[in-house]
Design a protein that fits this description.
Elements (H helix, E strand, L loop, with lengths): L5 E8 L12 E5 L4 E5 L2 H11 L3 E9 L19 H18 L5 H11 L6 E5 L7 H9 L5 E6 L6 H16 L2 E9 L15 E6 L1 H18 L3 H6 L6 H8 L5 H15 L5 H12 L7 H14 L3 H19 L10 H11 L1 H4 L3 H19 L7 H5 L1 H19 L9
Parallel strand pairs: 1-4, 1-6, 2-8, 4-5, 6-7
Antiparallel strand pairs: 2-3, 7-8
Length: 420
């Protein structure tokens, strides 16, 4: 995180273990500052530590139940204050909160407590929830979190275990709705103080889990690739950089064979690793391999099938039709079949040589239906008998499958009859 960015701190507060008067405390060691802070509510220690590092905490949202130890929030406030009247009022109100929270604090008292705490913590919000209302967390965050760009710090230490899980998944949904640029997770690992080597004077270690952000980035980049074929961000996460131009060339139907070969070699090396990156690299490798076709028409057909699988039907239709035209031109020895001006002459050739190009009447029908559908979809012209393929998904999918087979039968055939 950068200290220039405003952040939103989200905590959960539980009931804790009661030990005589007050809740059992723990000594949390923050490696970032070298401080040990004793508190029963880890969120208070985290708030003070972030403030010490000059982070601007714009909002602090705290979820809990009616029985949570809300009184422990007093520990988030610095010990000294120049306002003695406020200090005395705060201590008196804290005692009332402590007594009432045992049976369940009232909304009225909790609001008074929140208002008092805002004297020192302006962005604090105390949000009592029913822990079994799974939608309450995302609904509350939708109402509370500002729309301006923010980073989020999520404290998952306290409360029922399912609550931080739901909040974490909710933040993934809210990441774009609320312009959340980054999520960092903190955990006060109470049960790990003897597990982690080098823990400070037998204190409770504080885990800053940055890896969550990388996993979210992988999930988002995989989703982007699966829906649009854009692989640049996913490759960056695999430490393969400077591939923007390669993707652009593919989009423009160029032939960046050497660049793709290098990318695939890098992906193959990562695929051999014994890590989570291996299956991701292998999956991407399998998707990119067919694009190193020897001919433009083959690459266009492969990309047509790729986009068809991603439900990008118009893009798939255009690529299939153009790939078929170029493939027929190549097979029938058009020396300039790669030139745009040659496409019309290839189409004219097909029209005048249907017996040579097509083996059956059915193949010819598929070709013209594909052409009519493509023209109607791209230019908005009347469908000329292809209304079903433009308005019925099942019919379009059937035509696309037939079009791919037509390409394979004509362009990838064997024998002299079809110019192969």
């Amino acid at each position: 995180m950068c200290t220039k960015d405003k952040i939103i701190l989200i905590s959960l507060i539980g009931k804790g273990k009661i030990k005589e008067k007050g809740y059992e405390k723990a000594d949390y060691f923050f490696e970032e500052t070298g401080d040990v802070i004793s508190t029963s509510f880890f969120g208070s220690a985290l708030y003070r530590t972030l403030k010490k590092q000059n982070y601007e905490i714009d909002q602090w949202l705290i979820f809990g139940t009616k029985q949570s130890n809300w009184s422990e929030l007093l520990s988030a406030i610095e010990d000294s204050t120049s306002d003695k009247c406020y200090h005395d009022y705060l201590l008196e109100l804290c005692e009332r909160v402590y007594e009432e929270e045992k049976a369940g604090i009232s909304d009225e008292l909790l609001k008074r407590w929140e208002k008092a705490l805002r004297h020192d913590i302006p962005g604090i919000r105390l949000l009592p929830v029913d822990p079994l209302d799974y939608k309450v967390y995302i609904n509350a965050m939708l109402n509370e979190i500002v729309d301006e760009k923010r980073k989020v710090v999520l404290d998952i230490t306290h409360a029922f275990r399912h609550m931080p899980v739901i909040i974490a998944f909710s933040l993934i949904v809210l990441k774009y709705i609320k312009n959340i640029s980054d999520v960092t997770v903190y955990y006060g690992a109470l049960d790990m103080k003897n597990f982690i080597n080098g823990s400070h004077n037998n204190c409770v270690p504080v885990l800053k889990i940055d890896f969550v952000t990388k996993l979210v980035s992988f999930a988002e980049s995989l989703a982007t690739f699966n829906n649009s074929a854009y692989f640049v961000d996913l490759l960056k996460l695999l430490d393969i950089h400077d591939t923007e131009e390669t993707y652009f060339w593919l989009e423009m139907n160029r032939q960046p064979r050497s660049q793709l070969t290098q990318i695939i070699q890098r992906l193959s090396a990562i695929s051999d690793e014994n890590s989570y990156r291996s299956p991701i690299a292998n999956y991407l490798n399998q998707q990119l391999q067919p694009l190193i076709g020897a001919t433009l028409d083959k690459r266009m057909i492969e990309r047509a099938k790729f986009f068809f699988d991603k439900k990008q039907y118009l893009k798939a239709l255009i690529l299939l039709y153009e790939g078929l035209i170029i493939g027929i031109g190549r097979k029938h020895k058009f020396s300039d079949y790669l030139q745009y001006d040659a496409r019309e002459r290839i189409r004219e050739f097909i029209k005048n040589n249907v017996q040579l190009v097509f083996a059956t009447e059915h193949q010819k029908e598929i070709y013209y239906k594909l052409e009519y559908t493509r023209n109607a979809a791209v230019h908005g012209t009347p469908p000329r008998g292809t209304q079903d393929t433009l308005e019925q998904l099942d019919s379009f999918e059937q035509l696309f499958t037939q079009g791919v087979k037509l390409y394979e039968d004509i362009v990838n055939c064997e024998g002299e009859r079809y110019g192969c």
